[in-house]
Specification:
It comes from Brytella acorum. It is built from six helices and twelve strands. The protein is an alpha/beta fold.
């Protein structure tokens, strides 16, 4: 990488588990949409996939379909398990019907109270392969439908949020900022002041109490010896980690700003570097909150809803 400014502190904006690296002419300058994108960690409710009774499959093949479908959903970051439902579980109910020489799989998402909230038909599968319990045909059906079922669940959640006046679709997120620790020089204070100035907007506001917050943000700064550098300039590696913690204590995400700098170049005043770093981090924290809460998701389209879709489960 090349560094052109005296601060010699370009930033890479990361969001776990994604990573990227960009060379930028300004310290903490905007790295663009690709590096700024964040892992979507929106937590759906637990979804169980019971063995389907009306599947046109043998018991063994039906159990395989349930396992394959659960695995496909896990690949979409849905916490799905192939088992019989317990109280509080959402259920992916699967059936199949014959249409000529093909079998049509059907999928429905059912709330813990038993209300069906959305449904979808899968792609036709040759009836001969399906009735024979061909593992590859079953695997392919689950592989194709996993992303669509996950999207259906996301749309259902979005519809529920849209109907809830207390959801983050309907009000600003309340965020408690727990400060900055570990920065050299005046970094703890300078970064904190800059973040407090940069973060609030129409969709996110800072609150003075952790107990009233939807999310808590804390920045941890780590400085370690870096490469020897060139022309007699030793280096340090500095990393800013902006942890965003949900009200239940789980980590919604982390925006990470790492780089190598001239050793001790930030041991005194951070100056404009703090302002630019905090502004960039503020945008990252907002995106983490949006991704984790699902407030940007679109409700399920009308053609995927069922009659009870407007009722909370």
């Amino acid at each position: 990488m090349k560094f052109r400014h005296a601060a010699r502190f370009a930033a890479v904006f990361l969001a776990l588990p994604l990573a990227g690296c960009l060379s930028m002419p300004h310290p903490f300058s905007d790295p663009g949409n690709t590096a700024r994108s964040l892992a979507q960690r929106t937590p759906p409710p637990r979804l169980v996939v019971p063995v389907p009774a009306e599947s046109l499959l043998s018991n063994q093949a039906a159990a395989l379909w349930a396992r394959e479908m659960a695995a496909s959903l896990v690949e979409q970051t849905v916490p799905a398990m192939a088992q019989e439902p317990k109280p509080g579980d959402w259920v992916l109910r699967m059936t199949a019907s014959l249409a000529g020489d093909h079998v049509i799989p059907h999928y429905a998402i059912v709330t813990p109270s038993g209300a069906e909230r959305g449904h979808e038909d899968g792609a036709p599968t040759p009836a001969a392969a399906w009735s024979a319990g061909d593992p590859q045909a079953i695997h392919q059906a689950a592989l194709m439908e996993g992303p669509r079922a996950a999207a259906m669940l996301t749309g259902i959640q979005a519809a529920m949020m849209q109907a809830d006046p207390n959801s983050l679709m309907r009000r600003p997120a309340r965020v408690y900022f727990d400060g900055v620790t570990g920065a050299p020089g005046d970094g703890d204070k300078a970064l904190a002041q800059a973040f407090v100035t940069s973060f609030p907007d129409a969709r996110d506001k800072l609150v003075p109490s952790r107990k009233d917050a939807d999310y808590t943000v804390h920045c941890e700064v780590n400085v370690t010896p870096g490469p020897a550098g060139t022309s007699g300039h030793p280096q340090e590696h500095i990393e800013l980690i902006w942890h965003t913690i949900a009200a239940d204590g789980s980590e919604a995400g982390a925006a990470i700003q790492p780089h190598d700098i001239d050793a001790h170049s930030l041991d005194k005043s951070w100056g404009d570097v703090a302002a630019i770093a905090a502004e960039e981090a503020a945008g990252g924290v907002r995106q983490i909150i949006s991704n984790y809460s699902g407030r940007n998701h679109k409700p399920l389209p009308d053609d995927k809803k069922v009659a009870s879709a407007g009722k909370a489960g």
